[in-house]
Amino acid sequence: MFRAARPEDFAQVLHLYRQLNPDDPVLEDGSDAAAFQQILASPALHLFVLEVDGIVVATTYLNLIPNLTRSASPYAVIENVVVKVARIHARLLAAEGLHRAAESQGRLRRVAREPTDRRGRPTASAMRPIMSC
Questions:
Q1: Rounded distance between C-alpha atoms, residue 26 and residue 14, angstroms
Q2: What contacts 31, CB < 8 A, 6 or more positions away?
Q3: 10-residue block means of pLDDT along the chain (133 residues)?
């Protein structure tokens, strides 16, 4: 099931982010949990998860950003798309769910852009389309 992240998803989302950035330091001061709560509480930030059999196997982050151009229409940035290595086929389900979430905002436009990996190199298997609201 593709859904909005909930407070109880913190540990599983953090585990997925370790896969994305394995060299990030482990935070001992609770600032990661505080940031997670801030993200969940913000109306412009949307953290989604894909749950299969009670396990979060993918996550993505949709940021809606206020804008003064295009009749003051916000635009969206999709970041931190992570799929559990053992469940890589879930990527298509995550893409479909994200598309529906952005579409529900009522202002979906597709933007052609060559996807890159975390080092900025183009990837052949990255999701398309990148969406802009």
A1: 10
A2: none
A3: 95 92 92 96 93 91 91 89 71 64 56 51 45 39
Q: Residue holding tokens 């482990």?
A: 26
Q: Residue 101's CB: how many other CB atoms inside 10 A?
A: 20
Measured distance CA(3)–CA(13) in Å, rounded? 13
| DSSP per residue, 40-109 | HH-TTEEEEEEEETTEEEEEEEEEEE--SSTTT--EEEEEEEEE-GGGTTHHHHHHHHHHHHHHHTT--E
Cα gap 47→38, rounded to integer Å: 11
For the record, the structure tokens of 61 come out as 């982050």
Tell me how far apart the terminal alpha carbons of the chain are, to the nearest angstrom.
Answer: 24
| 116: β partners | 122
Distance CA 21, CA 34 (A): 19
Number of H helices, E strands in the chain: 3, 6
Asked if residue 129 has a cis previous peptide bond (ω within 30° of 0), the answer is: yes
Specify the pTM.
0.65
